[in-house]
Amino acid sequence: MFGSMKTDIECVLRQEEGFSRKLGLLLFGPGLHAVLLYRLSRWLHLSGLDILAVPLAYFNFLLTGAQISPRASIGRALLISHPTGVVIGASAVIGSQCYLAGGNTIGQLRGQGDRPVIGDYFFGGTGAKMLGKILIGDRVRVGANSVVIRSIADDNTAMGVPARIVFRRGGHRPKGIQEPPSRDEIAHRVATILKECLGLVDPLDVIDEGMKLIEMGVDSIEVLRLVCAMEEEFQIVVDESEETFSCFRSAGSLVTFIERRISGERQPSGAAGVRRGLEAART
């Protein structure tokens, strides 16, 4: 229990820099508190002390808004950004290094304990719901307000009601120190991604410094697929800043954006902001 709690705390504190901000998260972070209270209630349950585990889980709900059953099995490094409305049922199984944005339900679809089994490195967007006796593999991402009622294999991104696969990641590259790709290589790989995600005919004609992506009629589904493909292909994270919005306006600026991300500049997360930026740029 204490090892898992230590990992949970470390996972949360890595989000901020500076002692005061880390201390603020530790003392006033409801998401972290929800996870730690679950860990303690889970330990009490496994120790045969349900008479204490159940009241503690109820106190967790009153304090943080998260309803997490002590009977749920959750791996290390669970990160919950906003615990209000999070529901994790009794027979649910969640792997390690998973993230829940908030308002998520991992529970029954038809009753009788039919709850999901979720693998490692799962990402659940705000309001995403995983329901029923389904198996969700490793490195799966579920978009905001999506409802998953069917099993999802490893390395997929799903969204919608009911959720469907919108992006399938390719094979994983081995970790290790590698030389950063040249701009020409990045441009070629971006061309391939644009062709696959946007249905373009000739990718070589796309990589033009003046080619405007916002004039291609890209919808929200295509934007999500494009962002996911870039994050997977180049092992980067796309943020929601105004600077990022402008980088998606042309193919050339997109290549420059990826160059900067690979070089190690700041790397927050999120795809929704990119979609908003593209929509705003059209008006």
β-sheet strand percentage: 5-15%
Q: What is the CATH homology-level superfamily of the largest domain?
A: Hexapeptide repeat proteins
Shape: globular
Largest sheet: 6 strands, mixed
CATH C-level class of the largest domain is Mainly Beta
Helix content: 40-55%
User: Biggest sheet: strands side by side, in what order?
Assistant: 3-6-9-12-14-15
Number of DSSP-assigned strands = 15
Structural class by sheet pairing and helices: alpha/beta
Oligomer: single chain
* Count of structural domains: 2
Count of helix runs: 9
Q: Give the overall average pLDDT.
A: 79
Distance between the termini: 52 Å
What CATH architecture of the largest domain do you see? Answer: 3 Solenoid
* CATH topology label of the largest domain: UDP N-Acetylglucosamine Acyltransferase, domain 1
Over all CA atoms, what is the radius of gyration?
A: 21 Å
